[in-house]
């Protein structure tokens, strides 16, 4: 009896049953279709964000230009104190630059809104870079002290590149609130990363090469990044030259007060932590401990951006402020209970996790309340409020560390966080119409 043969790959077997005729196709084409293909996972929110045309290009230039923001102050202090032998002079020069930035920032941003980012940011950046180079030369060749103040004040023309980046996202994602939330979270994490890596890079450059190296490298990075950012014209928001005369009021007054209190949290925590580490005999470790706070904020910001926002920003902000007020008490509890810098470190890491979600939500609310044609101006006012709060917080934290104790001084950032919550709560009670509107 001949053995049954298997059907060839191109043959078809017909099986007749009582009910129907079933055709089984053994061709390779059928076998290919019969396999179940694995489903592709949908791209994550950050991958979708940077899939937008031009997003990666303007982000790369912006990050390169923002990194020096954490370098210039440290570099200037090291450069001036090393040459003139006076930390008081170095601190006064940097404080003058900080005050000048707070005054000039909103005016530069207003010009950006009116004439466009590229037309204003490039000459403003060139002026700031020339001011940094002038400071370097004045220190190098022993110019009079007043020239240091004049040169460093010229750096106040540095445009708010973080605000301009947020304005681009707001323009690109104006019809997608969820993606805009992710973009704002990324920008806040980028701020934390730049201010965490900037001082480290500046310290490395000034200590490894020569005192002016940090300022020189920072100026090159700022100019290069700003030029790359400005070259991406396709993603630039349109200027509002035609509507410049319509001075639509900015409805962010109470928010600015809230940002002042939040800035006081940052400024006081930095000074108090340094004072506490000095009292513990570990002043050199203060920078690493503070970096943990920034790292916690950066990680929380990225995670917060990956989550879908629950409800409008107006409802989320009180929750974020309450969380920040609660977590800012952890450093105080750790310092009092254990009295060790190594116990303070994890407390700062956890406390930092509340700041990025708070800043992201507050920035979203600023975007909601600011007219589209004045967004850069609104963002710059926020930066001015933060700088004001940082200066006030540094002064209060330093006073508490000197006149009370470094341990008890941790009350200062906790009190500032409670003040931010109280200000926002009071503004909501005073303005029920805005609460219903959101």
From TrEMBL:
Domain of life: Bacteria
Listed SUPFAM superfamilies: MFS general substrate transporter
Pfam families: MFS_1
Keyword field: Membrane, Transmembrane, Transmembrane helix
Membrane-spanning residues: 63-81, 87-108, 120-143, 213-231, 252-276, 288-307, 319-338, 344-366, 378-401, 407-426
Region (Disordered): 27-46
Keyword Membrane: yes
Protein name stated in the entry: MFS transporter
């Amino acid at each position: 009896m001949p053995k049954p043969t298997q059907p060839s790959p191109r043959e078809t077997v017909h099986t007749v049953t009582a009910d129907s005729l079933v055709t089984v196709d053994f061709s390779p084409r059928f076998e290919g279709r019969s396999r179940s293909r694995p489903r592709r996972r949908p791209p994550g929110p950050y991958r979708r964000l940077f899939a937008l045309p031009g997003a990666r290009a303007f982000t790369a230039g912006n990050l390169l230009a923002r990194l020096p923001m954490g370098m210039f102050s440290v570099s200037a202090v090291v450069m001036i104190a090393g040459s003139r032998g006076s930390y008081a002079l170095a601190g006064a020069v940097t404080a003058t630059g900080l005050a000048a930035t707070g005054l000039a920032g909103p005016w530069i941003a207003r010009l950006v809104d009116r004439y466009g980012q590229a037309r204003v940011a490039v000459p403003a950046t060139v002026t700031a870079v020339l001011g940094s180079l002038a400071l370097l030369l004045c220190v190098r060749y022993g110019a009079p002290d007043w020239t240091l103040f004049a040169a460093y004040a010229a750096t106040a023309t540095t445009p708010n590149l973080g605000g301009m980046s947020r304005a681009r996202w707001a323009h690109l994602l104006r019809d997608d609130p969820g993606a805009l939330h992710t973009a704002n979270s990324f920008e806040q994490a980028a701020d934390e990363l730049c201010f965490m890596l900037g001082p480290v890079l500046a310290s490395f450059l000034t200590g490894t090469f020569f005192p002016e190296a940090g300022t020189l490298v920072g100026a090159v990075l700022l100019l290069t990044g700003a030029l790359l950012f400005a070259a991406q014209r396709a993603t630039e928001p349109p200027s509002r030259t035609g509507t410049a005369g319509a001075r639509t009021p900015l409805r962010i007054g109470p928010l600015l007060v809230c940002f002042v209190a939040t800035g006081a949290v940052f400024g006081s925590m930095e000074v108090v932590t340094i004072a506490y580490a000095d009292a513990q005999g570990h002043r050199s470790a203060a920078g690493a401990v503070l970096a943990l706070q920034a790292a916690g904020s950066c990680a929380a910001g990225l995670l917060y951006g990956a989550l879908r926002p629950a409800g409008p920003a107006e409802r989320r902000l009180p929750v974020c402020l309450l969380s920040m007020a609660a977590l800012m008490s952890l450093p105080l509890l750790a310092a009092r209970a254990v009295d060790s810098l190594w116990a303070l470190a994890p407390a700062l890491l956890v406390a930092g996790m509340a700041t990025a979600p708070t800043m992201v939500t507050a920035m979203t609310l600023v975007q909601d309340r600011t007219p589209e044609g004045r967004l850069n101006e609104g963002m710059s006012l926020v930066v001015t409020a933060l700088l004001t709060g940082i200066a006030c917080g540094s002064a209060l934290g330093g006073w508490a560390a000197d006149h009370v104790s470094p341990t008890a001084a941790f009350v200062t950032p906790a009190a500032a966080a409670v003040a931010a919550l109280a200000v926002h709560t009071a503004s909501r009670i005073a303005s029920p119409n805005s609460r219903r509107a959101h």
